[in-house]
Amino acid sequence: MAPPEILPPEILSIDGCAIQRAAVLIRAGQCVAVPTETVYGLAADATSGEAVARIYAAKGRPSFNPLIVHVASIEQAAALAHLSPAALSLADALWPGPLTMVLPARAGSPIAALATAGLATIAIRMPAHAAMQALIAAADRPLAAPSANASGRISATTAAHVAASLGGRVPLILDGSATQHGLESTIVAVDADRLRLLRPGPIDAAILSSIAGLPLSTEAAAGIEAPGQMASHYAPGKPLRLDVSTPQPGEWLIGFGAVAGDDTLSASGDPIEAAARLFGALHRADAATAARIAVAPIPMQGLGIAINDRLRRAAAPR
Ligand code: AMP
Ligand code: MG
Fold it and tell me: Is 266 domain-assigned?
């Protein structure tokens, strides 16, 4: 992987030209920092695994958590997920706004597996901020966007926070001054028979329950899908061995770089490509006839740290 860019980011006040410039970068697979009504987001094309991998690279995130996918309309959301009547009621009442819903993903959805961390569900939000809405429309695709701060640091609520936290690792920051809420969106999982509050936020949970006409689960399990608690959220159904250059008989080898294997994360040893291909490669290994899976060594540098984190979780005994 090329070393992180050290050029200072371009910071543009929001107008039609700035949005077009941002959309060109997004379509080219780059990240752009953009204000929303909650906090600044680090946005990239949610349909491109490599673009999503660049979000992780820029944030220096040591693990792959599912990201929120931002859309500009309920129709766009409905193309990606199944919206139950309760979910539609919530969308009608509270979108655009600081509400993220975790919904069953549609089969054949164009969203990159890395954006949902290989899950069968997808977190979707329609933001209210005009800049984010304009960017989704100009890029003409859903945008994955976690908060625009380095991993483990506080969320950015001004363009200056973004620049201080991400520096030259983001090519463009759209400056929309301070964000309205300054707090991340409320996240609710909409199940058939109940709502589960996964993250409290600007929208009160009691309001969600009355709009959806569903009970809000108060069990301690709420939040179980929060970052770091998703150890086994995607794990293949077969034993998995790491750091393998020479497979044993009966092993399906996922290669990297010079280790070719039955499949490869990246023949050229590119961690961005490897991250983009990770969940697909695990699914293919699971579907193969071989009884066991082996994975070539991935250097513990840059995105390699998050890739190894995911692989170690997948290899953990269950
Ligand atoms: P961020 O994008 O950094 O604001 O974080 C997104 C949050 O949404 C994280 O807490 C994720 O765990 C949560 N999330 C995203 N997708 C899902 C999903 N499919 N199921 C459960 N939680 C999710
Ligand atoms: Mg964050």
Answer: yes
pTM for the full predicted model: 0.89
The answer to whether residue 235 is domain-embedded is no
How does DSSP assign 124-166, residue by residue?
EE----HHHHHHHHHHTS-EE--BSS-TTSPPP-SHHHHHHHH
Q: Of 62, 57, 68, give the one whose Cα is nearest residue 225.
A: 68
pLDDT over 80 (residue 163) = yes
Please tell me the residue having the least CA distance from ligand 1 atom 22.
225
Among 86, 80, 83, CA closest to 136 = 80
Inter-helix orientation angle 130-139/16-27, to 10°:
50
Residue 100 clears pLDDT 70, i.e. is over it: yes
User: Separation of 239 CA from ligand 1 center, angstroms?
Assistant: 27
Looking at residue 144, which CATH number applies to its domain? 3.90.870.10
Classify residue 228: in a domain, yes or no: no
Q: From the alpha carbon of 227, which atom of ligand 1 is closest?
A: 12
Of ligand 1's listed atoms, the one at least distance from the Cα of 67 is 2
Atom of ligand 1 nearest to the CA of 185: 4
Nearest CA to ligand 1 atom 4: 146
Q: Which residues of 77-114 are buried (b: 16+ CB within 10 A; e: fewer)?
A: bbebbebbebbebbbeebbbbbbbbbbbbeeebebbbb
Band the pLDDT of 220: cuts 50, 70, 90.
very low
Same domain, 155 and 291: no
DSSP tag of 203: S
The H or E element containing residue 207 is helix 205-212
Residue of minimum CA distance from atom 14 in ligand 1: 66
The residues pairing with 32 across neighbouring beta strands, listed in sequence order, are 43
In total, the chain counts a number of residues equal to 318
Ligand 1 binding pocket includes 123 (Cβ within 6 Å): yes
* Average pLDDT over all residues of the chain: 91
Number of domains in the chain: 2
